[in-house]
Amino acid sequence: MKKLTSLTNALAAASLLASLNAYAQLKVEISGVGSNQIPVAVATFADEGAAPPNAQVSAIIKADLERSGMFKIIDAGVISNPNDVDYSQWKSRGANAIVVGTVSKLANGGFDVRYKLHDTIKASKLSQMDQTTSVNEVRLSAHKIADDVYEKLTGVRGAFATRVAYVTQQGRQYRLVVADSDGENELPALISNEPIISPSWSPDGNKVAYVSFEQKKPVVYVQNLVTRARTVVANEKGSNSAPSWSPDGTKVAVALSKTGNTQIFIANADGSGIRRISNSSGIDTEPQFSADGQYIYFTSDRSGGPQIYRMSANGGEAKRVTFSGSYNISPRISSDGNTLAYISRRDGGNFQLFVLDLATGQEQRLSDTTSDESPSFAPNGKYLLYATVSGGRKSLAVVSVDGRVKQRLTIQAGNIKEPTWGPFMK
Amino acid sequence: MRNVKSVAFILSTAALLSACSTPVKVADPAPVVEKPVEAAKPVADTRTVAPVQTASIDPLDDPKGVLAQRSVYFDFDSYVVREDGKPVVQNHAGYLTKNAKRSILIQGNTDERGGAEYNLALGQKRAEAVRKAMTALGVPEGQIEAVSLGKEKPKAEGHSEEAWAQNRRADIVYK
Q1: What is the pLDDT of residue B23?
Q2: In chain B, how many domains are there?
Q3: Which residues of B are less than 8 Å from A239 in CB distance?
Q4: Do residue A327 and residue B114 have CB atoms under 8 angstroms apart?
Q5: Positive/negative CA dihedral, A266, A271, A275, A276
Q6: Does residue B118 belong to the interface with chain A, where contact is any CB pair within 8 Å?
Q7: Please, what are the domains in chain A?
Q8: CATH code at B96?
Q9: Measured torsion, CA atoms of residues A182, A187, A191, A197, in degrees rounded to the nearest 10
Q10: Which residue segment(s) compose the domain that B87 sits in?
Q11: Looking at beta carbons, which residues of chain B come within 8 Å of A237?
């Protein structure tokens, strides 16, 4: 009887998990590539078939590198000896570099994943990495290899081993979902029959702050993704929204209407110590800490229509940053502090993603769609994830900061919105 | 002479005869004719008690009452209560001043155009406008909380001006 019960429980748990996962498979389509793609050969890793079917290491590496738009992938297939690479052969096949490796299943059920990156032109090894992982983290180990290849060949840190969060809506059910940056491993963090907006990752990647309407008004929560513990950060009289973490993870900036008009406040991450830092008689909202914690960028309509401003993280005088167009909202600042992404309403009502070079003042429109929202930088500053409308349905898109690489992310049914790219994690 | 005498004699003789000898003949009973039955007319019993049902309805719960109207609509890019919203404001302000234990949430909304957070702040302006109008009519602050749903809970799902007009709205919700 005991055995039957636990089997029934296991089946029930498995079918619940399956139904949770089957709910919204995220599909990623590439529709634009970089200007100068580096040709890279990727070989099948020896014995990679020993890992679970959805964790085939070389396939994950190829998909990551291809999605980045920065590489032209040459499928090297199975090569006889990963430890003895024929450089001239691969150079003559047009590859500047080749990725080889092995996967070994360990007695404890885990895996040993080893890889080497070779430069065919210099005829030498560029990089190598050995990882021991559990069966559940084989995909992650492949993403880390792709990150290493990306970094060694472009000079920029890769962001494949990161996660994203977004909100899905189907009918009256809303979910805050966390997924790998390639759309796999989707898991719901919050399931609600009321809207969820403005999710924001903590700097350590373990917590998400968000706005939930479950109390019939907007309230800011912080949820620990590991323990599921929820803390109310702000439920003052009126509306509470727009959470943004400080880079040291100790504070959350929020927009509160408690004084009558929407203004920016800072709270400790546990909700204590709420103090006001913006000062206008209109709307100040959408605070965003700069990566060094010195400044807060925000949206304000103090000049009539919404524009983007910057003030010290302690408040005080605000400096206006956007001057083109009459409606600029949703500021996001790259981690190097050089680029501002935002949504601008232009040309009679189109809401489009723009970037502004803060040094030169040069702006560039990054999308051709008309209802863009919620931009979010990849932690390496090279890509923007944002919400848009495509084919009449709300979907997500990724674009490189130079506008060339484009991806579309859709789910089978329902709407997907409010995306946010998680931080680098160990 | 003889005639008169004989008539008198006959008459008196007849009278004598009828009085004594022959019993009065009883007429045959009248034949029974079926008449249509008439509905019995109600007879007022003076001891009847006929119940009358009455209920004191909270005017808030009367689906036909003025308090059933709980939405105030706004023009595009406007945060000012229109003329057609003023009766709603006045009626609920009146109810709240008479019922000190009741309190409301005013939920402001916007149409779907624009960003979620900025629209949350705009919806808040609509809720505030209704709140201020009510406190100006004497409703204590503690009975009203103005909040926003931004564009997150549209009443009308379409993408037309008709749908948008339905969604630019503040709703009064009793707690």
Answers
A1: 44
A2: 1
A3: 120-121, 124, 147-148
A4: yes
A5: positive
A6: yes
A7: 27-154 (3.40.50.10070), 163-421 (2.120.10.30)
A8: 3.30.1330.60
A9: -30
A10: 60-174
A11: 145
- H or E element: which one contains A319? strand A315-320
Q: Which among A213, A216, A262 is the nearest to B121, CB-wise?
A: A262
Decide if B145 and A327 are in contact by the 8 Å CB cutoff: no
Would the CA dihedral through A256, A258, A262, A264 be positive or negative? negative
What token pair was written down for A311?
């003030």
Q: In this predicted structure, what is the pLDDT of residue A10?
A: 44
Residue A273 class from Cβ within 10 Å (0-12 exposed, 13-18 middle, 19+ buried)?
A: exposed
Do the beta carbons of residue B136 and residue B116 sit within 8 Å? no
Query: Mean pLDDT across the stretch B82-95?
Result: 98
Q: How far apart are CA B138 and CA B95, in angstroms?
A: 11
Burial zone of A21 (CB within 10 Å; 0-12 exposed, 13-18 middle, 19+ buried): middle
Q: Which tens digit of pLDDT belongs to each residue from A177-222?
A: 999 999 999 999 999 999 999 999 999 999 999 999 999 999 999 9
B14 within some domain? no
If you average pLDDT over residues A150-179, what whole number do you get?
97
Residue B115 to residue A351, Cβ atoms within 8 A: yes
**Which pLDDT value is given to residue A17?**
44
Q: Is residue B22 situated within a structural domain?
A: no
Write the burial class of residue A176 (CB in 10 Å: 0-12 exposed, 13-18 middle, 19+ buried).
buried
The interface residues of chain A toward chain B in range 279-318, judged by CB-CB distance below 8 A, are 283, 285-286, 299, 306
Which residues are CB-neighbours of A226 under 8 A, at least 6 positions away?
Answer: A206
Question: What value does the mean pLDDT take over residues A346-351?
Answer: 89
The 10s digit of each residue's pLDDT in A288-346 is 999 999 999 999 999 999 999 999 999 999 999 999 999 999 999 999 999 999 999 99
Q: Does A343 touch chain B (CB under 8 A)?
A: yes
B13 in a domain, yes or no? no
**B20: in domain:** no
Which residue of chain A has the CA closest to B132?
A260
Q: B113 and A343: CB-CB below 8 Å?
A: no
Q: Do the chains contact at A238 and B147, CB–CB below 8 Å?
A: yes
Contact with chain A for residue B173, Cβ under 8 A: yes
Tell me the ipTM for this assembly: 0.92
What would the two tokens of residue B171 be?
């709703």
How many H helices and E strands in chain B? 4, 4
